[in-house]
Amino acid sequence: MRALLAGFEPFDGATVNPSWEAVRLVPGAHAVLLPCVFGAATDRLRAAMLEHGPEVVVCVGQAAGRADVTVERVAINLDDARIPDNAGDQPVDRPVVPGGPAAYFATLPVKACVAAARKAGVPASVSHSAGTFVCNHVFYGLMHLIATEFPQVRGGFVHVPVAPGQVLDQGGPSMPSMPSMPVTMVAEALTAIVTAAGLVHDDLRLTGGSLH
Amino acid sequence: MRALLAGFEPFDGATVNPSWEAVRLVPGAHAVLLPCVFGAATDRLRAAMLEHGPEVVVCVGQAAGRADVTVERVAINLDDARIPDNAGDQPVDRPVVPGGPAAYFATLPVKACVAAARKAGVPASVSHSAGTFVCNHVFYGLMHLIATEFPQVRGGFVHVPVAPGQVLDQGGPSMPSMPSMPVTMVAEALTAIVTAAGLVHDDLRLTGGSLH
Amino acid sequence: MRALLAGFEPFDGATVNPSWEAVRLVPGAHAVLLPCVFGAATDRLRAAMLEHGPEVVVCVGQAAGRADVTVERVAINLDDARIPDNAGDQPVDRPVVPGGPAAYFATLPVKACVAAARKAGVPASVSHSAGTFVCNHVFYGLMHLIATEFPQVRGGFVHVPVAPGQVLDQGGPSMPSMPSMPVTMVAEALTAIVTAAGLVHDDLRLTGGSLH
Amino acid sequence: MRALLAGFEPFDGATVNPSWEAVRLVPGAHAVLLPCVFGAATDRLRAAMLEHGPEVVVCVGQAAGRADVTVERVAINLDDARIPDNAGDQPVDRPVVPGGPAAYFATLPVKACVAAARKAGVPASVSHSAGTFVCNHVFYGLMHLIATEFPQVRGGFVHVPVAPGQVLDQGGPSMPSMPSMPVTMVAEALTAIVTAAGLVHDDLRLTGGSLH
Questions:
Q1: Would you tell me how many other CB atoms lie within 10 Å of the CB of residue A73?
Q2: Pairing relation of β-strands A30-34 and B74-76?
Q3: Which residues of C are catalytic?
Q4: Chain D residues within 8 A of A162 when measuring between CB atoms
C-alpha cells in the first residue's frame, strides 16, 4: 500500500511541530511538510498526491492540550482563525471551498484506527471537531480533493499532543504542564493507523460517540 | 417574532434536565419538551413547528462538564451513542437522515448570539461539536426540516451546563464538583440568544474560531 | 454567635474580587476588606478581630479556575508568589511566620461546612491546598493568631470561583469560559458555612479525602 | 551518594503501578516496593532505610490525572481515605502520627529537582498537596522518620502520571484518555531528581508558587 503522510511546520511562535517530527519517523510512507498557511497548505498536499499517487493519505496536526492521539471524524467547510497563519492571513467565517458541502467525513476507518493505535500501546480516541484553523482547512481540502479528483484515495486527519520539549518552560516551577507525548510514541500510533487504513475495509462497529 | 424553544427530558438516570427547566423560563416563546429518544425527539419538534409556526427555533440540551452556554455551529449526519437513549436505542454509526448532507451549519447568527449572552452577563461561547447523541440528532433533524420543509425558519442549538443541584452529591466531601450554572442564568442567556436571533441579520464578524 | 468574614480587594489587574462582593452579602456577620498584600493583610485581619471579638473567623479568597466553593483544610508556612502582590512584593520561599509550625489545620468543621453549603444548594468541597500566595498567607496568619492570641476563636479559609462578569471577555467568541459562580450563590454558601461553624461541635465523619 | 527509591504496588483494582515500574529503572539506587496499606507501607520503608542506610530517600506514587511529574512540597498529618487501601482499611480524619506536627516540608530541593527533570526533557512541577491517602501517609511517615530517627537523610515524595497502558481501555473509541507518561520517561525524571537531591545544597530561588 502506498501511503502519504503530511505534517505541519511550526506555527504561533513555536520552533517545532510534533506532527512533522512524527510523520518523518513512520516507516514505508512518503512524508510531506505542509506550510501552516491557508490555501498554500492544500496546494502543497495536492502536489504531493500527484507526485506519489498514494492509496492512503493521512494529514497530521498538533492539538495543544489534548492528551491522546485523536483521529478526526469530520471536516467542516469553515475557516475561522483565532490567530494569523504563517503568512499573516486570518480569515473570519470564510468557506474552505465556496459552494462546497458543509462537511466531509473522513474515509479512514476511524474506530479501527483508534483500536490499532491502542493495540500498539498508544492512547487514542475519535474526535468530532478538528477546529476551524489550518488543520481543519487541510482536512476539508483533502476530502474535497478526494471527492473531486482522487476518488480511489482513502483519507483523514489525525491530531497529536505537543511534544514534551514544548512544555518544559511554560511557567514557573509550580505551574503544571499541559499533557504531552513523545514523538516516537506518536509515530507508533501513526504507523498503526496507516496500517489499519490499508487493511480494514469496513470500520469496526464499536459502541462510542460523544454525548456532546 | 415567534420563537420556539425546545428542551429535553432527563436522561441517563438523572431526575432533571436543565435545558427544559431553562426554556420554560424564557418569556414570550413557546416551549416544547422533547423526549431523549432518537427519532421521536425530531418528530415531536416537527409537530411543534407545525403547530406554532415559529420564525426562530432554538433547541437546547445539557452538556455535562461545560462551564458556559455554548451555541453550536454545526450538526453532523451521524448517530453514534455511548449510552442508550430513553427508549433503549443505542445506534452505532448510523446517519440521522440516510442520504442527507454530511452536515448543516446553524442558521442562527452564532457569534451575535454569544455576544448577546455575554452582554446579558452570562458566560458563553461558540462550539464546533454537538456530539453524536440525541442533541446532535435533533440539531441535524431541525436543520434538515428547515432545509426541506420550513425554509423561512432560522434555527440552531444551544448546549447548557448542568444545574448546581445536579452536582451536590457526586462524590465525597473532597471531590471537586464539575462546573454548573443556575437555570435562571441559563434562561437569561437563552432570552438574549433568541432576541439576537430575531434581530441580527448578518452575523458579527468577530475574530475567533478554534485551533483544534 | 459573632462572626467575622474577610474578603480581598482585587488583584492581578482585576477590577473586582468575588470574595469581597460575597462576604458583604452575608447577613449577621462583620465583613472586613483585606488588602492583597503580604503582611498588611494579616495586620488588617488582626485589627478587625480585636475590634469585633468574633467567635468564628472565615477568610475568603478567589480561586480562578475552580468550579465550586472550597473549604480549605490546611495552611502552610510558606510564601512563594508567582505574581507580585498589590504592593509589589513577590516573596520566594519565605516563611509566613519565621519559626512557626510547618502548617495549621483549619479549626472549622470542614466537612460539616461543605455539607451545609451543599444542603443550601451550592456546589462545594474540601480542598487540601490554599496555594502559596496571599490567600494561604492570611489563612496561616489567622491560624497563628488563633494559636497565639485568640485561642477561643474558630477559624478557616474558603476559596470561591470567579464571578461570571470576570469571564465574559476572556477571549474570542469560540474561547470556552473558565467556571464561574454568581456572588449571591457564593454568599449563600458562606452563610451556610458560618452557621455550621457556629453550630457544629465535632466535624462530620464523612468518608472522603483526595487520592493525590 | 546512597539513594533509596520507594514505589507502590498496584491499588484500586489496577494491575500495574507506574511508580514501581519506574523506580526499578533508576540506575544506582536501591528500590523498595511498598504495600498500598496504611501503616505497613511506612514500616516497610523504615526497614529498607535501616537496611540500606541511604543519604537520600524519594518515595514515588501514582497520581492519575496529572500530566507531569510532580515533586511534592508538603506532607500533612492526615489520613482521610476515599477508597479502602489494599488491606481494606479506610481511615477517616485520623492523624498519620498522633501528636505529630501538622505537616512536614520535603527536605529535597524541590525546585532544583523540578529544574533537573525539565533539563532531562521531562515535564515536571512542584505540587503543594500529596492528597490524604497512602501516598501522603508514607510521605509524612518518611519525614517523621527523618525528624526522629534519621536526621542525616534528605527526603521527599514524587507523584507520577499513569502509564499509557493504563488508559487504553478506559471507555469507548470516542472517550478521550487521561494524561499518561511512559515509565521510561518517568524513570529519567526520577534519575535527574535523585541526582539533584544529592548535589544541590540550597534550593534554587525560582519565582513560582501557586495562586491557590
A1: 27
A2: unpaired
A3: 72, 135, 159
A4: none
Nine-digit cell string for A134:
489550518
pLDDT at A1 > cutoff 90? no
Nearest chain B residue to C117 by CA: give it. Answer: B168
Report the C-alpha gap between C165 and C160 in whole angstroms. 14
Give me the residue label for grid cell 415567534.
Answer: B2
C-alpha cell at C79: 510564601
Strand ranges (E), chain D: 3-8, 29-34, 56-62, 69-72, 74-76, 103-105, 124-127, 154-160
Q: Is A59 among the catalytic positions?
A: no
pLDDT score for D18: 98
**How close does chain A come to D12, measured CA to CA in Å?**
21
User: Does the pLDDT of residue B1 top 90, yes or no?
Assistant: no
Q: What is the pLDDT of residues B94-147, one digit of tens each?
A: 999 999 999 999 999 999 999 999 999 999 999 999 999 999 999 999 999 999
The distance between the two most distant Cα atoms of chain C, rounded to a whole number of Å, is 52
Look-up: residue for cell 507506574?
Answer: D18
Task: Give the 3-state secondary structure of residue A101.
Answer: coil
Q: What is the ipTM of this complex?
A: 0.96
pLDDT of residue D208: 85
Separation between Cα atoms, residue D154 and residue D158, nearest integer Å: 14
A 10 A CB-CB count for C51 gives: 11
CB pair distance less than 8 Å for B212 and A90: no
Q: What pLDDT is attached to residue B35? A: 98
Residue C34 has a CB neighbour count (10 Å cut-off) of 25
CATH topology of domain B3-199: Aminopeptidase (3.40.630)
- Smallest Cβ–Cβ distance between A93 and the set B92, B135, B203 belongs to B203
Task: Tell me how close the Cα of C172 comes to any Cα of chain A, in angstroms.
Answer: 7
pLDDT of residue B82: 95
CB pairs under 8 A between A and B: 130
Please name the member of A80, A132, A172 whose beta carbon is closest to the beta carbon of C82. Answer: A172
Question: Which residues in B have their CB inside 8 Å of a CB on A?
Answer: 61-64, 66, 73-74, 76, 78-83, 90, 92-93, 101-105, 111, 128-133, 135, 159, 203, 205-212
One of D36, D135, D144, D188 is an active-site residue; which one?
A: D135
* pLDDT mean values, one per 10 residues, chain D (212 residues): 97 96 97 98 98 98 98 98 97 98 98 98 98 98 98 98 94 93 98 95 90 92
Q: Given the residues D72, D137, D144, D188, select the one marked as catalytic.
A: D72
> Is the confidence at residue B26, as pLDDT, over 90?
yes
Count CB-CB contacts under 10 A for residue D86. 17
Say whether pLDDT at A208 is over 90.
no
Confidence grade of residue B67 (pLDDT, cut at 50, 70, 90): very high
- Please answer whether residues A56 and A197 qualify as being in contact, where contact means their C-beta atoms are separated by less than 8 angstroms: yes
Residues in Cβ contact with A113 at an 8 Å cutoff, skipping those fewer than 6 apart: A71, A124, A156, A158, A192, A193, A196, A197
Residue type, D92: V
Mean pLDDT of B28-56: 98
Question: Quick one: which of D93, D59, D100, D90 has its CA closest to D78?
Answer: D93
Best mutation target, A69, A70, A162, A174, to test chain D (most D CBs within 10 A)? A174
Domain positions in chain A: 3-199
Closest approach of chain D CAs to the CA of A65, in angstroms?
10
Which chains neighbour A (Cβ–Cβ under 8 Å, 3 or more pairs)? B, C, D
From C120, C108, C125, select the one nearest C197 (Cα to Cα): C108
- Among the listed residues D144, D159, D79, D82, the one whose alpha carbon sits nearest the alpha carbon of residue D113: D159
The whole-angstrom separation of Cα C25 and Cα B30 is 36
pLDDT attached to residue C1: 87
Check if the beta carbon of residue D155 is closer than 8 Å to that of residue D110.
no
> In the predicted model, is pLDDT for residue C169 greater than 90?
no
Average pLDDT across chain A, whole number:
97
